Amino acid sequence: MPMSGKSKGFPARAIVLGLCSRLHHRTPMTDYPFDCSPLSPAIGLEIRGLDLATTPSAETTAVINRVFLERHVLVFRDQDMTPARQLAFAETVGEPAIYPFVKGLDGFPAITPIIKLPHETVNFGGLWHSDTTYLERPPKATMLLAREVPPVGGDTLFASQVAAHNALSGGMKQLLAPLRAVNASSKADVTRTREDRIDKDGGAEKKSFEAIHPVIRTHPESGAKALYVNRGHTVRFEDLTEDESAGLLEFLFRHQTREEFQCRVRWAPGTLVMWDNRACQHYPVNDYHGHRREMHRITLKGDVPR
Ligand code: SIN
């Protein structure tokens, strides 16, 4: 369903605009300064014909920010960017943060190289999660630029947590509304996915972080409600034991990644994806043993989830 903001005109554009307005009851935008198409009904927008190696105009940046809030995942194709340019683009949409577990690129501490080598079998963050929810202020967004990808495989799945929240029954929403959950960096499954990459020089292997956040959060910019637990980092509900929490958490972990809430991104060198950690979670598929994959990752500072 390709669409063009300028050249192909109204009908195709109206599909995405209608989609976005149906999902979020917003007034449709009157124009897009780029070609784009949705990745699925629930989430994701692929954008073509926009060169981020030069700073986008204020108008284009405003549209990017707007569709980001509506679609949660933006995929920019064919970007030829140096690390300095990637950082400069990140600074137009937020404030880059330092990832506490893996050392950044030389000269660019905010850009974390995410590399899986041909002999490795574990990939970084290889399970459903929203980024670093064990921090008091988890990043609002993450930006990943593909440098080298396997010939096939190594896709990343995303799931809308707004759609996941909206699909819950009224009774379940009421039950979850007052609950908060404990998120820990030491949760065993996710710890294993970064073992080979840990920044031992910085002593990061000794660090452990824990934060308590609402189970349903309200997006600070769009006002949308989103489910905010995740299999990677959430260990239990506040004031309950892990055993007592396990049944309901397992239901939520399964529910929140249902296929109809998802889109799938197939990477190519130069693909840059930016996702909203306040509204979605992601799963990098580990199906490309024997091949090298290298991504450059920047996280953007966020606020305390409410
Ligand atoms: C991550 O979880 O930040 C990495 C995602 C990916 O490698 O696709």
Can you tell me about this structure?
With 306 residues, the chain is α+β, with helices and mostly antiparallel strands. It has one domain (10-300): Clavaminate synthase-like (Double-stranded beta-helix), CATH 3.60.130. The protein has 7 helices and 16 strands. The protein has helices at residues 10-24, 58-71, 83-93, 161-166, 170-176, 188-194, 242-255; strands at residues 35-38, 45-48, 73-76, 96-97, 112-116, 141-148, 156-160, 180-184, 210-214, 216-218, 225-227, 234-237, 262-265, 272-276, 280-284, 293-300. The strands form 4 sheets. Strands 1, 2, 3, 4, 5, 6, 14 and 16 form an 8-stranded mixed sheet that branches. A 3-stranded antiparallel sheet has the order 13-7-15. It has a 3-stranded antiparallel sheet with strand order 9-8-12. A hairpin with a 6-residue loop joins strand 1 (35-38) and strand 2. The chain is globular, with a radius of gyration of 19 Å. The site of succinic acid has 10 residues, from strand 6, strand 15 and strand 16. The site of succinic acid (SIN) has 10 residues, from strand 6, strand 15 and strand 16.
